[in-house]
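Appendix B. Raw example, untouched.
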Amino acid sequence: MTGEITPPGAGDDRRDEMLTPGLRVGLLGGSFNPAHEAHLLVSRMAIRALGLDRVWWLVSPGNPLKPEKGMASLTERLASAHAMARDPRICVTDIERRLETRYTVDTIASLVTLHPDVHFVWLMGADNMIQLPRWYRWKELTRMIPIAIYPRPGYTLKARLSPAAQALRDATLDTGDARRLATAGTPALCFLEGPVSSLSATQIRESEGWPTGRETG
């Protein structure tokens, strides 16, 4: 099954989520609290390096590994992501809210079931790669979807030496083979190389007075 994702109860038009067989789609998950230039930078880097057709920004309703304190509402974070996604190849989506999935492994399981003929790639920063063993059913996740690691200042070398990277050592592609990742059998991992941004959502929240209100009702 391919096409528009419209779970029961979701009746609005989501044409940006239309997918056709054979597309290569990167999935960039996060709180986007708020979205910023680094999200755009790594998305474009991944499109070039991996030969992707699109990147989806999965704006999470709530990250199990992050505290709710200081988290803006989903509506505010989606608006921030839409404003920052200045590339027609980037789709901002609240699909996790509509699928009612809390963990990445459950989101990916749903997406690969809905779109069995689409080649998804999970995009992850080097800092998150270090934390991957803390993720719920992380080994199962690596068997569902290829993973591309983009560089982050101060974390890239640590990510290459991390327990998760060691566990996936035999499944790791050379950086020069990055375009093979989307169609590689799983597990599959590739470390990307490219420009690095030190910009963080924390810095933006502190400097710009980013809203931290919570939705009610």
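End of appendix B.
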